[in-house]
Amino acid sequence: MENIALIDSFSEFKDDKLIDRVTLMAILEDVFRNALKKKYGSDDNFDIIINPDKGDMEIWRNRVVVADGEVEDPNQEISLSEARKIEPDFEVGEDVSEEVKLIQLGRRAILALRQNLISKIHEHDNTNLYKQFKDLIGDIYTAEVHHVRPKAVILVDDEGNEIVLPKEKQIPSDFFRKGDNVRGIIENVELKGNKPQIIMSRTSEKFLEKLFEQEIPEVFDGLITVKKVVRIPGEKAKVAVDSYDDRIDPVGACVGMKGSRIHGIVRELGNENIDVINYTTNTQLYITRALSPAKVSSIKIDEDKKSAEVFLKLEEVSKAIGRGGHNIKLAGLLTGYELDVIREGNLEDEDVELTEFSDEIEGWIIEEFAKIGLDTARSVLNQDVKDLVRRTDLEEETVLEVIRILKEEFED
Q: What is the distance in angstroms between the CA of the first residue and the CA of the last residue of the chain?
């Protein structure tokens, strides 16, 4: 096979892989030089001339003429008699350039050349893909569901690139079918061997931040700044926003009339409840806003311990803590302070939501009481034990333990 014929056979890679002709020729030269090194020990004295426009190439070996019997390095030197077979007027000391035909490398070498070229092109593709998606880390990306697996959803973009959405990076309520379009952020690009693995996330705080940029023009234009985002994916999120223009209400602009602007974001996140609050450097005010919708009576801050005691009226306690403790947890993450709720008011009148006892009472037990309309401590304590056992799927021992925990709360 002539050199040019080999290049023509390689042109298929240019079309398949969308590699420009010049890059293909550069890869080709590198592959040939590797073959020459294996065949002759060195490629230093070879010239490879590639014409990317015509798609042809020539290989020339340069050697020095030495007297017969004095050849020490056959790759670098040629005897006078051998040189005169090429040109009859060569003399000792002159340089000889001789074209090397592909067939001289041998059939096995030609097959190896092709295999090496394929490998180099894949390497080139993977390097470009790695760089391309490295630059996209932290950006929103859309791809189509190609395959749903137990531990991950495999997505494919318009260019055929494979993207992995691991189970732990999915919102709990996410449910995907083949062909669905999925939005998330490119969270990471990892090299698995020589192949880049692109990781998407829908649970990242950055995803919510970028959704604000996409959906709210003032955020996109920089008139409103997203200062911090914290979230429990699929459940609840808090977003602190600020504006350097006093004429702009950052919360109002983000939420929109009757929640019109934020509705699309909430829907994208599986109806995740999003609280948008005004950022401030006033710590007491910031904590008060972060605990919304609860109304805080007063706050005692310990800057050294980065903690705060939050005093609330009895009816505000459950609002501050929130379902499953989500509200107070996110408020702490948003402000950077460990928050401790202190109840105010007459203990005789106090009642506490069962969700506040989630550290001591398992969630499924609390749910059993909720099924029969009992969602506060006193509503449970006012019931007969046998009646509670009959109306729920709980053992008497479990009911008695719950009652003990609830009574201790009021005794304390």
A: 93
Which candidate, 333, 246, 252, places its Cα nearest to that of 291?
333
Phi, psi angle pair for 56, to nearest 5°: -120, 170
Specify whether the CB–CB gap between 275 and 237 falls below 8 A: yes
- For 136-201, give the CATH class: mainly beta
Q: What is the DSSP letter of 12?
A: H
Tokens of 73: 């390095």
User: For residue 395, with 0-12 CB atoms within 10 Å meaning exposed, 13-18 middle and 19 or more buried, which class applies?
Assistant: exposed
189: left (phi over 0), alpha (psi -120 to 50) or beta: beta
The burial class, CB within 10 Å (0-12 / 13-18 / 19+), for 156 is middle
Least confident segment among 75-84, 113-122, 151-160, 368-377: 113-122
pTM: 0.61
The total of other beta-carbon atoms located within 10 Å of residue 241's CB is: 25
List the beta bridge partners of residue 46: 61
Q: What b/e readout covers 10-19, taking b as 16+ CB neighbours within 10 angstroms?
A: beebbeeeeb
Domain ranges of the chain: 3-131, 136-201, 206-341, 354-411
Q: Are the C-beta atoms of residues 330 and 355 closer than 8 Å to each other?
A: no
Whole-number Å distance between alpha carbons of 312 and 175 = 40
Return the exposure string of 23-50: e unless at least 16 CB atoms fall within 10 Å of the residue's CB, then b: ebbbbbeebbbebbeeebeebebbebeb
CATH classification code of 3-131: 3.30.1480
Q: What is the dihedral of CA 80, 85, 88, 90, to 10 degrees?
A: -30
Q: How far apart are CA 327 and CA 265, in angstroms?
A: 19
pLDDT digit string (tens) for 193-203?
777 889 999 99
Distance CA 402, CA 385 (A): 10
Rounded to 5 degrees, φ, ψ at 222 are: 90, 5
Q: Can you say whether the dihedral through the CA atoms of 194, 195, 196, 200 is positive or negative?
A: negative
Residue 2 is predicted with a pLDDT of 45
Closest CA to 144 of 133, 153, 157: 157
CATH no. of 206-341:
3.30.300.20
